[in-house]
Structure formats: C-alpha cells, structure tokens
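User: I'm writing a tutorial on reading structure tokens. Could you give me a worked example: one chain, its sequence, then its tokens, then a sentence or two explaining what the tokens reveal?
Assistant: Sure. Here is the example chain.
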Amino acid sequence: MKISPQELAMRVAWPLDYKLEWFANRYAEFMIEMDGMCYRSFSAGKDSDMGCELIELIHNGTLIHLVHPPLRAKLLKLPLPPAVFSNTTNEFKEIIRHSKKREHIIIKPKMSFLEVIDNVGVAIGSKKIARMLRDLRNPTDKNIATNRLSLTGVRKDGKTAKAWKLPKQFIKAIDAPFSISEKCCDVLKKEPFKIYEKETGRKGIVFTMVGESTHRKMAYLQTGCNSFKAGSEKCKPMSIFTDADIWECAVRFNHRFAEVYYDRTEDIKQLDGTIKTEFMKAETTTGCRMCLFGLHLEDKKEDNRVQRLAISDPKFHDLVINKTVIGDVLKFFNIPTMPMRKSCKNTAAD
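And here are its predicted structure tokens:
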C-alpha cells in the first residue's frame, strides 16, 4: 500500500507512545502473516539493538498490551524470532562485545572486508558516487548514456539533472590507481542475509528508519512498514522512528547501548606495547568502522572517523592504513588519517 509524503510526515511527528503501538502491531501483522517464520536483523548498533529489545519486551509480556487483541492472541502462539548477526569483519570492537549480550545466530560473508578491498574495490564518496565512478572506469555500450549524464549532468532530453552529475572533487578518481565499487555492502551484509533466508525460509525484520536516507524514504512510500510481495517480504516496524525516539526508548526501558555510543575513557594498548589512557567521544553512528562513505563531508576541524579509530583501535587502524590500499586512497583524496590531538596518559604495559 502506497503512502503519501504527507501521511509519512504525520507519522514521523507522532509522540513515542503512538509509535510504539504502531511498531508492535506492524510487527505482529508480519509475524502472523509469515506464520512466525521470521528473524530479527541484528547488527548490535543502537537502532537494531533497540528494535530487538522492543520485540523481546513484547514477547516477555512487558509490551504485549500494545498489540491489538485480535492480533495479540495469534502472536502469543508464535515464538520469539531469532536475532541474526552478520559479522562483516569490519565491526567496532565495542559492537562485537555488545552483541554477546543478546543471544543470536552469527552469519558471515564469503569475503572479509580486506578481501573485498582487494577483489571488489574501495567504496568512496557515497553509493551513488562509487557507482558512477565504477561505470566511468569501465565504459561499455550499455552505460554510454549513464556515463554522459555523470560527466555533464545533462539527460537525453537535454534537461539538467545536477543530482546525477559526479561532484568535481571525484573527477580525478576516474583515473585513480585503485579499484572503486559501491558493492561492499552487498558482499558483506546483503548477500549473507539472502543466503540465510534461502536456507531457512525465514523473512527479515529490519530496524531502518526513513530519516537515514532518501532511498529508505522512497521505499517506505511504496510499501509502508510491511512488504508482503512474494520473494521480497520484509518488515520495517521502526521506519517512522527518529534518532531522538531511539534514545528516549533507551531511557524509558533502562537499556544501554554499546559503549561506542557514549563518551568514555579506556586504557588502549598501542603498537609499541605501551598503554595509553584515552578519552573517546561517542560515535553517533557505527556501521562498518572503516567505511569511507561520507568521509569527505566530515568537519575538517575535528578528527574524522579514521582519525578517531587510530585512538580507539591502533592495531586495526595500522593494518588498514599502512598495509592495504585504503591508506593510498585517503592520501589520494588528501584526507588525514592520524589524530590531531594527543593522548591523555601513557603508561608501561604490564
């Protein structure tokens, strides 16, 4: 069922109590329609963590009252769907630690993050920019018009489409000495879940929100929270939530996310074996820790995510920057990799 932009805006503006009831009933409808053959997509990031928590609160009785009576009786006959965690091999160490607090099934991609860099290409700019560059670097008879649009911003009919023109700062990457691709997420996240669904027959409950991207907003306008189209069944009960809603849920239900989402001080082992007591600012989003999408847009006056990783995980930072092509990629775009600030305290390792 298609949703109008006005209806979506109204739902996003609802108070949290309305959204929680909406979440519970969209989840119940999907579970009942799929006869319980579902799974929860669990990344251990705050959004999926909260989504999984809400579903557990429904099944343990704490929030079951939010489900409308006709649906409630049917839902109570169905088991809690398993949480499934796809380890991309590019997760924050705090995310891995936190994932262990919830019972889950682990699935893995066919290639590790480092193998994807070597065999598929580096994801830079954004999915759209990386796709433009991949096509421009690999011209064929089929992508002539697309490549012309990427270079000029002019469509076949002569009209201007600036949004589809490759940003100037990425023009030089057409001839860069490294492979570029937007398919990193496909290999590390999407494909493992597709395989899991095929092997188990289960359908996914995901915890994405429309405010995260234009693509997710447009998808929601086409289907709403639940899609029952054969072959592409999916439940997205958290679609109308905002980031503020997620944090309000955490307070209301006394739930703490992975430590990476909070300001903290930790003793971090350095490459030379010494221990440094480091203060680390909270990350607002996690995902893949060495993802380069959007890196060029970060505040130049603050450490970017790669610089912050040099503080929180020196060993992984050194591996990726100095022993893979990513170091060359960031140098190519003049993006700094080492932090601007000094450590808090340096002590000898035990």
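What the tokens reveal: The chain has three domains: 5-111+187-252, 124-175, 263-347. The longest strand covers residues 264-269.
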